Amino acid sequence: MMREKIVEFLKKNPNYVSGEELSHHLRISRQGLWKHIQELRLAGYEIMAVPHLGYRLVSCPDRLLPFEVATHLNTKFIGKKIYYFQTLSSTMDEAVKLGLAGSPEGTLVLAEAQTRGRGRLGRHWISPKHKGIYFSLILRPKILPNVTPMLTLLCAVSICEAIKENLGLEAQIKWPNDIFMHHKKLGGILTELNAEMDVVRFAIVGIGLNVNTEKKNLISGATSLKEQKKEQINRLALLQEILRRIEKNYLYFGVHGGIDIISKWREYSLTLGRRIKVVCQKAHLEGEAVDIDSDGGLLVRKDSGLLEKIMAGDVVHCR
Ligand code: BTN
User: Fold this and answer.
1) Cα–ligand 1 centroid distance for 118 (angstroms)
2) Residue 196 has pLDDT above 90, yes or no
3) How much is the pTM?
4) What proportion of the chain, given as a percentage, has pLDDT over 70?
5) Distance 59 CA to ligand 1 centre (A)
6) CA 318/CA 280 separation, integer angstroms
7) pLDDT at 282
8) Which of the listed residues 63, 190, 231, 246 has the most CB atoms within 10 Å of its CB?
9) Are 175 and 311 within 8 A, CB to CB?
10) Atom of ligand 1 at shortest distance to CA of 120?
11) Are 46 and 92 in contact (CB under 8 A)?
C-alpha cells in the first residue's frame, strides 16, 4: 500500500526528503505523491512540505490505523485481516458477525472507542476514545469447548509478556482473566464461544486495556499503564507486541498443549497462594487458592481441607 510505504520512508529519513527522491523511490508521479500526502494529512499525519526541500514527517497520529498495525507485525495469521472502527458498540458483536460470515482465524476487530464495551458477568467496560486498546480476535481452535478457558489464560499471559517486553512493567493476573498492576485493574479478557456440544466453531477473545486512560475515566480500583509508567504510552507498539505474543503462545498451545502456558500463568498469578472468596453459580466459597488445573480451572482448598475446582466465578482476594 502506498500510504504505508510513504510513512515508512519518511520515518526512516527524519530530515527532509525531496519530492523527486520520494516519487522515484515509490515509482509514482509527483501529483500521485501529493495526493497521498494529502490523504495522510487528513488521517492525522503532520507532514511538512517545503519548496526545494521536500517532505518531512513531523508527527504521527495516535491512532491504531490498520496499515500501521500491519507494518512489521510479522505474524502468520493474526491481524492479516483487520477491521478498524472509530466507534463501535462492542468489538465482540462485530467479531461474532464476522465469525458467522466465515472470517478466517486471526481476524482482528479494533475500535478506538466503544459505547457498550462489555466485561464478564454483564459488567460494562469503559472505553474512552483513543485512550485504550480495545479489540476482539476470531480464533478457530481445534479444541473441545471445555478447553476454551485455556484461550483466556493464554491471552492473559501474552498481555503480561508484552507489557514486560515493551514497558518493563510487571503485570499480574487475577484468576481467570483480569490483568492487574499494584493491586489495581489494568485490563480484562472476555472469551465468547460459538460452539456445539463437542466442537468449537469459533471463539472470540476480546481484550480491553487501559493504556493512556485519564484518571476521570478510571473507576475506583482501576489503573492505566500511563498512570503506572508515568508517561504517555505508545499504543500501537504495545498492540503489535500483544498480537505477536498471542500468536506465538497460541501456536505453541496448538502443538504442545497447555502445560507451558499454565506454568507461565502461575508465574504471573496474583491469585495463587492467597485466601480468596469466590462467588460462582453454585455457591459462595472461601479458601486458599492452591493451584490451577490443566484445563485452567482454579483449585481452592476449603477450610475443611477439601479441594474444590472452580471453572468460572468472581474472585475476591481476602488478603
Ligand atoms: C472483563 O474485565 O471482564 C473483560 C473486559 C473485556 C473488555 C474488552 S474491550 C474489547 C472487547 N469488546 C468488548 O465489548 N469487551 C472486550
Assistant:
1) 5
2) no
3) 0.92
4) 99
5) 30
6) 16
7) 60
8) 246
9) no
10) 3
11) no
Cell numbers given for 229: 509508567
Length, in residues, of the chain:
319
Taking the C-alpha atoms of residue 87 and residue 131, their distance in angstroms, rounded to an integer, is 12
Can you tell me which residue has the cell 482476594?
317
Per-residue pLDDT tens over the stretch 57-100: 999 999 999 999 998 999 999 999 999 999 999 999 999 999 99
pLDDT tens digits along 124-140: 999 999 999 999 999 99
Pocket of ligand 1 (CB under 6 A): 90-92, 114, 117-120, 123, 125, 134-136, 178, 188-190, 206-208
The C-alpha atoms of residue 180 and residue 173 are separated, in whole angstroms, by 6
Amino acid at 59: S
> Cα separation of 116 and 91, whole Å?
9
pLDDT value of position 126: 96
Centroid of ligand 1 to alpha carbon of 70 (angstroms): 22
Rounded Cα–Cα distance for residues 127 and 108 (Å): 17
CA atoms within 13 A on the CB side of 236: 14
> Nine-digit cell at 161?
509478556
